[in-house]
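Slide 14.
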Amino acid sequence: MQAFHSDAHALQLPSQHRFPQAKYRLLRERVEADPGAVWLCPAPAASEGELALAHEPDYIARVLDGRLSEAEQREIGFPWSPAMPVRSRHSVGATIAAARTALAEGVAMNLAGGTHHAYAHKGSGYCVFNDVAVAARLMQAEWHARHRSARPGLRVLVIDLDVHQGNGTAAIFRDDPSVFTLSLHGARNFPFRKEASSLDVELPDGTGDAAYLAALDEALDEVDRRLQAHPPGLAFYLAGADPHEGDRLGRLKLTAAGLLARDERVLDWLWQRRTPVALNMAGGYGADLAAMVDVQYATVQAASRAWQRWQGADGTMAR
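Slide 15: predicted structure.
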C-alpha cells in the first residue's frame, strides 16, 4: 500500500506552540521501522490550478505571497512563514496522490492531511487548504476527462471521523450533490458554529466505544439508504486519532481498541461495496505523543490489511 508523506516540509512555529507537528515525523519513522506491506512515498506539491478547484484564487494568492492578515493567521492558528505554503501544498498533494492511487489499487493513504476546517475563502483550525475538497474535485475532473460520455459522473463519499466537525468540507460541498459528506463528531467540540454536512451525527462528551460504534453503524446504514441509486466511486476516510481517551481536545473517550474497531468497520464497509478509499490521518492532540502515534500506526496497519484484501490472493486487484 502506498502511503504519502510530507513531514520534510515543516512549519516554522514558536517553541511553545500547542500544535503537535512532530507527530507526522514520528508516524513516518514508525512506519519506516516496521513497514510491512506499506511503501512510503514522498508527496508531490499541489499546483495553484489544483488548489483553485476548491479555493478562491485571491485566498490562494494571499497564502502563497504572505499577505494573510493577522486575523486570518490567528484563525488558522499558524503564523505565516515561507514554510506555510510549501507544507500546505505538499499536504494537499499527498491526498491527491493517495486518491489517484486508491482508484487504481483500492486503498492508499496520506500520513497527514484531513484539513477539513479550511473553507473556500479562508483557513481555520490548523487547516490552510482543504486537501480532501481539492482532491475530490480533481478526481471528478479526471474521471470526466476519461469517460466523457458516461453519466452520472464520479460520486464521492467523505467519511469524516475526526472528533471535530468537518465544517469547511461541508460548506464547500453544501450545494454539490455529487459529494456526500458524513461527519461523526463531538457535539460540544470545535467548531462551535457547525455547518450542515449531508449527514451529521453529534455525540456527547464521554461517548465510549460501544455507543460510538453503534452510532457509526447507524450512520453507515443511512449512507447506504441515501446513496443506493448512485453509489460512490471513491471515498475519503478521515481517521482522526482525536476521539481517543488520551487526547487533550477530544473528549469522546474511545480506547485504542475502539478506534481500531472503527477503522476496520469503515474499511470493511467500503470493501463490501468495492469503493476505493484514500485515508487521511486528520486530528490527534494527545499529551502522550507515543500513545497517539500507536493509534495512528494501528490505522496504517488496518489500511494495509485492507489494501492486501483488495489485491486478492493472486496479487491482482479484486473488484
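Speaker note: Residues 264 and 302 are 6 Å apart (CA to CA).
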